[in-house]
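Shape matters. As here.
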Amino acid sequence: MDIALRMREPIAPQIVAALRQGIVELRLRPGEALSESEIAARFGVSRQPVREAFIKLSEAGLVEIRPSRGTYVMKISARELANARFVREAIECDIANNAGRLAGPHHVAELEDLLARQRAADARNDYRCFNDLDEAFHRAIASIVDCEYAWRIVEAARVQTDRVRFLSLPNASPMPLLIRQHETIVDRLAANDPEGTEAAMRRHLREILVALPQIAASNPDLFADTELPAHTRGLTPAD
């Protein structure tokens, strides 16, 4: 939550972004109580924008507001994560297909630059930077098809998947594996291969289902539930 607020801009959205990042990177742990007054003091603001931020984070499924009892970081729900991943796959695979049809050399150059920066983050073992670059990579592909509405839906779904993705980076889905998957996506984009780009994106988005059992077993205190919904049964990355 190491951000400097821009006082000429709305404060609550900035606090939402800072708290969301803290939750995704597990500096605010699942089950942890959040103090409205402490956060207001940390940012040097009144409690009103913090209260507004809590409501937005509650709507996103990241915090739970318990009347007269406090506000708490939500534990990770494997069911909610799988449902969010389902939505991401449906939208991002269609985005990938269209991007494979529309991508030009300047799009590929931008993605190659992001790949280079991801490799540098991997060399430094910089998980925070890699996580930011992963989001930038997916956003850059979405921008090729020029449908901001689709990306807004993806961003909402990422709220549920990003914590587990961050947990996966050291071992379950290490950065070199994800970079290789990104490279395959870019290769298919550069070849203007819509079906190949879609298949590569589908494989990439299903990686989280491969990593999830290991992550849940290693971090049981972070999870509210570990049972996956029916639509994941028998699903493999290669399907």
